[in-house]
C-alpha cells in the first residue's frame, strides 16, 4: 500500500524519522552514566519499545499496570510503573506480572509499602520499589529530603520488596519556552532529588537508581552524575510543542493524515480530522507543508481551517498532514499506526496498549 492510499483520517509514523530520533537519543547518552528508560505510555507499542531497547534503553517506564501487562506480553523484561498502585485488584495483577518480568513500582506512602509487601510475599515474588520524590511538579511524591528515609527503611525491612532508589518527573518544567529557564529550573529540581538521595545515604541506605527526566528536560538531567535513568517518552514520536520550544535533536515523526471535505468560502475549509483523532490538551495541532493555512479549532469530527488570501487555494479531496501537539494523548485515540518509509506503508502496528488505563 502507498501512503496516499491510506484512508483518512489516519495516524502515520515516519519510520526513518522515528529511527533517527531513537539513534539521536542513543548517541546523546553514549558515555553518560544515565541510560534511557523510555516512557512507553507515549506510543504504547511493544515493537517500538523493542527498537528503543536494541538501541541501548535498559527497559521501559509505564503509567499503568495494564500498560505493563502489554509490554511484558510483548517481551519487555524490565518495566517500571511510574505511579502508585494502591487497589487490591491492581496490586494482585502487579505481583502476578512480577513472575514474568523485572517489575518496579513507585511508592510515596507507608501503607502502600505494606500492601505491596503483603501481596508480593503471598505470591512469593519480588517487586522492585522506588520512592517517588516531588521535585516541584506537585503531583505525587514525598517532599524532598528526609521524608523518604522511613519509606526506604520500611521497604528494606519488608518481605517481597527490593529497594531500588528514587524517581520523579519535572513536568512543571518540560514545556517552558526558554532554554535557560528550563536549565535553571532543572537545576533546582535536581537539587531536591539529590538532597533526598543524600538523606537516604546519611541514614546508611544505598540508592542505586535515580530515574528522572522527560523529553523537555533530558539534555539537562542527563548531565547530573547522580542520575542513572532518563524517562523521556515523547522524543520518539515528537510533538510540535516540544519542537517549537526548541527541544534539541528530535523531529516530528508522527502525523495525522486528513482530507479536505468542505471549502465553504475562500477563507475557510474543513478536514475530516477532529477531536476523535487529534487532541488539543497542549494547544492546537499544526498543519505541515501548506503555507497560509491554519488549523484554528477541532470539533468532534472536523478540523476547522482558516485560509490566508495569499495562500494557494485548497481542493476538495486534497490530503493535508497535521502534526499533533501531544503525541501521547493522540496515539491513545487510534487502534493502529501506519509505519511509512518514503511513500510506502511498511508496517501497520496495532496500538497494543491503547485505552489501557487500569
Ligand atoms: C513520570 C513521567 N516520566 C516521564 C515522562 C515523560 O515525558 P515525555 O513524554 O514528555 O518525555 C512523563 C510524562 O508525563 C511522566 O509522567
Global outline:
elongated
Task: Catalogue the ligands.
Answer: pyridoxal-5'-phosphate
Total helix count? 10
Major β-sheet profile: 9 strands, mixed
The end-to-end span amounts to 35 Å
Determine the strand fraction and express it as a percent band.
Answer: 15-25%
Overall average residue pLDDT: 97
- What class, by secondary structure content? alpha/beta
β-strand number: 17
Helix content: 25-40%
Show unreliable segments. Answer: none
The sequence of SSEs as H and E is EHEHEHEHEHEHEHEHEHEEEEEEHEE
Rounded to an integer, what's the Rg over CA atoms?
22 Å
Overall description:
This protein is α/β, with parallel strands linked by helices and 358 residues long. The chain is 29% helix and 24% strand. It has 10 helices and 17 strands. It has helices spanning 15-29, 46-54, 65-73, 88-97, 110-122, 148-156, 179-202, 218-221, 240-244, 327-331, and strands at residues 10-14, 35-36, 60-62, 78-81, 102-107, 127-132, 161-167, 209-212, 229-230, 254-265, 268-271, 286-288, 293-298, 303-307, 319-323, 336-341, 344-350. The strands form 2 sheets. Strands 1, 10, 11, 12, 13, 14, 15, 16 and 17 form a 9-stranded mixed beta sheet that branches. It has an 8-stranded parallel beta sheet with strand order 2-9-8-7-6-5-4-3. Helix 3 (65-73) runs parallel beside helix 4 (88-97) and helix 4 (88-97) packs across helix 5. The longest helix has 24 residues, at 179-202. The chain is elongated, with a radius of gyration of 22 Å. The two termini are 35 Å apart. The protein binds pyridoxal-5'-phosphate.
